[in-house]
Amino acid sequence: MVGERYEVEIGPVAHGGHCVARTTLPGEERPRVLFVRHTLPGERVVAQVTEGDADSRFLRADAVEVLEPSPDRVPAPCPFSGPGACGGCDWQHVAPGAQRRLKVEVITEQLARLAGLTPQEAGWNGTVEPAPGDKLPKGEVPAWRTRVQYAVDQDGYAGLRRHRSHEVQRIDHCLIAAPGVSELGIESREWPGVAGVQAIAATGSSDRQVLVEPEPGERLPIVELDKPVSVLRIDEHDGGVHRVHGRGFVRERADGRTYRVGSGGFWQVHPKAPDVLVEAVMQGLTPRKGEMALDLYCGVGLFAGAIAERVGERGAVLGIESGKRAVEDARHNLRDLERVRIEHGKVETVLPRTGITEVDIIVLDPPRAGAGQQTVTHLASLSPRRIAYVACDPAALARDLAYFKAAGYQPRFLRAFDLFPMTQHVECVAILEPAVKGS
Hints:
The chain has 8 helices and 22 strands. The protein is α/β, with parallel strands linked by helices. Helix 1 (96-115) runs parallel beside helix 8, helix 3 (273-285) packs across helix 4 (302-311) and helix 7 crosses helix 8.
């Protein structure tokens, strides 16, 4: 059915960067669901199927013609966005304030469907907060992305993947790329024999880093860019990262501390995100002197460092992280804090082995899939007075909130932040505490 076109009225936004439409196809009695990109609720569009066949439960489609536009529609600032083009942004055609309202609708729907919670029950005021400096007028795009993963086409030119595709959309500039990434000039040179290039521009320093992944069997080309930059090579066999020249890490800064992040390791992509999230987590947990804390999925130690500064010398913080290089970085970053210990391994494996039976506060920042029922149940059994859950996926957050509810914990409040403008992604911080009996 790919390529078939249908005139449809667009319904609500759905989790995933698309909206829902329904249409009755020839020969069918029941309406078929279409997930349509590049549109907005209330619009009437011509939707062209991009995935699906006669047996599919739903079809994926792009809005290739807008018959009745939404008042929230704007001309896309990026010339590389739109049907069949770059898949990096979902909402280039949507006014900034309306983007945040769409994310509100998604969070509200996920909380209701997966956690059985209204915004009021979740302690959420029903808004998605822009990052400081990101509240821009229509037609302007914040340049926030400090880490950009470029793909390289068969002719050796860098670009970005098309939506749900391995095809490369060649570009000459990414509007949401941070200035430190754009100034490297990745798109303006050829990359022969290269499969992909990741560019990193630290916001806590002037450090710039490029990770190059050669095609299988190809040698690493000489990398000469427009600015001083460290170069690392991604091994084709094991995915390991090897330093070619320059530092093997970048230096980031948050909450008054400097953090080393090595080999392209995880750090929040929006330059304001680390401080925004630390502030939200610390306000929610209110760490007290002498408390025992857990920082799970701790990365390079962002939250562990913030908590350790606040619990003082009589307190203690245990961080757990599965990435070996991230553990090395966390231990280096927090080496001046004797009250912090970082353990290497998966949370569900390491935490039970510690023998810890009680803690005061917990922060967890799990991967997109969430923490899961086993881990949530274990955390609740430790009887913390408060838990801070940092989530980059509202569906995973809602599922885990349901598990916490079953284990006796309820949200005290929830905040949502627009740390990924122009995309469907949103970051949430939920603060949980023991449920009041009878509630």
